[in-house]
Amino acid sequence: MTDRTPSQTVGPYLHLGLTQGDFGAPEIFGPAVANAGLPGIHIRVEGRVLDGESVPLPDALIEIWQADDKGRYAHPADGRPLASNSFRGFGRCATDKDGSFHFATIKPGSVPGPNGAAQAPHINVGVLARGVLKRLFTRIYFADDPANANDPILALVPADRRETLMANPDAKSPGLFRFDIRLQGANETVFFDA
Amino acid sequence: MNDIYSRAGDAADPPSLSPEYRSTVLRSPSRPLVIIPQTLSEITGPVYGHSDVLPGEADLTRQHAGEPQGERIIVQGRVLDEGGRPVPNTLIEIWQCNAAGRYIHETDQHPAPLDPNFTGAGRVVTDDRGHYQFTTVKPGAYPWRNHHNAWRPAHIHLSLFGPSFLTRLVTQMYFPGDPLFPFDPICNAVTDAKARERMICRFDLETTKPEWALGYNFDIVLRGPAATPPDSD
User: Fold this and answer.
1) Residues of B labelled as active-site residues
2) C or N: which end of chain B has fewer Cβ atoms within 10 Å?
3) Complex prediction ipTM
4) How many CA atoms lie within 13 A of A60 on its CB side?
């Protein structure tokens, strides 16, 4: 075995390396995960990243990884053909000065889970920031989806904390979901170890 | 459901709460992580490779009209997994301050000069043997406000994807013999001394180009496959 290289924080100047499009390089990825023609229900996810005193983080970066509308990942370990080559399933958004982030994407389909169980539609989320020494990892579920009741991963989360994983539809804006990430304290977001 | 990726190597990583690094105090979860199986969602991950990056992006000294100030260096190495296997075709994003210790970033107020010929960001993709190389200038040390008279040792930030969502790594590469190591709470947030050494590159005369640039070797080891369970009779 070869020993792993340890993780370190992205630090306060993360934008220079992780949003290089803002510094003159071609942009490879950003907050737009799905182009307009992609099949599926187009949604927007908006939220803020907050610390243990509910202060927004202006120097965090959110990365998302998700399946397409049929629950297929653009990755060889999945292997099922995708409807569109343009869908790569990955998005990245640095938080704004008020700690806010946003993604334009589609709602993923149900994804195969352990032992033949289906997983409810979800988006995988990585959180990087100054003061975060190792990426934090969580999931976005959709509060209005009945499949959540049978999701094998949600079942591992204490019932009183599941709400922290739910993106809530905005009653005033169809297609908009709100998902805040609280790194610490009351209503602290559930983070996973896989 | 058996693990595809090893969990044991997580011990090398720093704890989320590392109070000497003050920013962790309010930004680290206070509740335990919820342990979950590795499903299709975790064993897949973003795939970016050679078609996404231009060859010139690996040379940070040629992004402007002139040459940047400072000591030109070549950094090369391999990206491996914990099983020692090369990780081919994986994206590496790098960023750093200039030779004077200043980032081209609006929040960096250190009164050291910006260099009009240096941005400090680059990208490279590992080849089919897991090898990468980039050219840059050696970054300077710089002060920060974590504690009185705090200075970061010279470092280059590296961000890697690897083959899945679970292999994602962001780290910092340090330089041999830096006198600031004992005082740096970010480097020392990694509690195991041997693990800290794995963040320090090695001077490499083979990589050094005569009359041109000093060479450093830095191998990066990502999370790898779980040990295969023994066959049951």
Assistant:
1) 103, 142, 152, 155, 157
2) C
3) 0.97
4) 34
